[in-house]
Amino acid sequence: MPDTLLAVLILGGVGLVFAIMIALAHSKLHVWEDPRIDVLAAMLPGVNCGACGLPGCRAFAEQAVAGEIQPAKCNVLNDEGITAIADYLGVSAGEADRRVARLLCAGGTNVTVQRAEYRGLQTCAAASTVSGGGKGCTWGCLGLGDCAVSCEFDALHMNENGLPVVDPVKCTACGDCVDACPKNLFTILPLPQHLLVQCRSLMAGDEILAECSVACTACGKCVLDAPPGLISIASGVAVVDSSSPLSGDESATRRCPTGAIVWLDGPQLTTSQPKESLLQREIA
After folding, report:
1. Entry pTM
2. First to last CA, the chain
3. How far apart are CA 211 and CA 10, in angstroms?
4. Are 245 and 193 in contact (CB under 8 A)?
5. DSSP string, 241-265
6. SS3 for 86?
7. Per-residue pLDDT tens for 93-111?
8. Could you give the angle at the alpha carbon of 164 between the alpha carbons of 161 and 170, nearest 5°?
9. pLDDT tens digits for 110-163?
10. Which residues, listed in sequence order, are joined to residue 161 by a DSSP beta bridge?
11. 24-77 tens-digit pLDDT
């Protein structure tokens, strides 16, 4: 037998053996995947924002097909998209668990003191490394817009006083702004949570008012006026217990001397003028 033919036969035999082994391994180890997952993944926005609590849209599709998550849990889809997915799967759309990013600061340039001029790289991350930035309140928003740059959904823009304003309609609660802010001024809250303390200053008492006229002074009036257990004072600032039933009313904001605590009914209040408390209006 010629050497060439022998070599061909040997190689062919080896190839056949490996082909049989691969075929057997495939039949034993193959994991079947529901074809609906690919269809559903194509129906999802594909932004992989993680706002649903899963690592991406394909993971959401897998759990939706398995019946472990409801279509309405996707914060990016509109009502039509949610209905389309529910109809495709033949399941209920479920209740939307709308969450939104909220800013824990109302200290714009119109109500705060600037103690130093920062001339470095125009990012909050860079400014915060230089003595915490130039603001008198070292806990306040630096206003250089790292959060707005990080938002892929155009849900954040800077207002005339250097404060980021969140559009609750566009916000998907993805958390990019939370990660981008070096001052940890963003938090993700349920949309129905109306009470918000727009301050993170840890300087208790009226001393902070020399730096920001809308800061929380930890006076405790909101604690007395709110339903029991809803608000407490911790480290010099009022804190709303987000786990409490949100059945309170606007009463907790009425005697706030600075307007640091607000009742949200729609977009967060970040106007060009500081919010006046109801008590101040009554005195006026």
Report:
1. 0.76
2. 112
3. 85
4. no
5. -TTS-----GGGGTT-SS--EEE-S
6. helix
7. 988 778 899 999 999 999 9
8. 140
9. 999 998 888 899 999 999 998 888 899 999 999 999 999 999 999 999 999 999
10. none
11. 776 776 666 788 999 999 999 988 888 888 989 999 999 999 999 999 999 888
Q: Quick one: tokens of 82?
A: 């949610």
Q: In the numeric block, which tokens belong to residue 217? A: 């002074």
Residue 19 DSSP SS3 = helix
For 192, other C-beta atoms within 10 Å of its C-beta total: 9
Look up residue 282 and give its two tokens.
Answer: 């009554």
Question: What burial letters (b/e) apply to 148-170, b meaning 16+ CB within 10 Å?
Answer: bebbebebbebeebbbbbbbbee
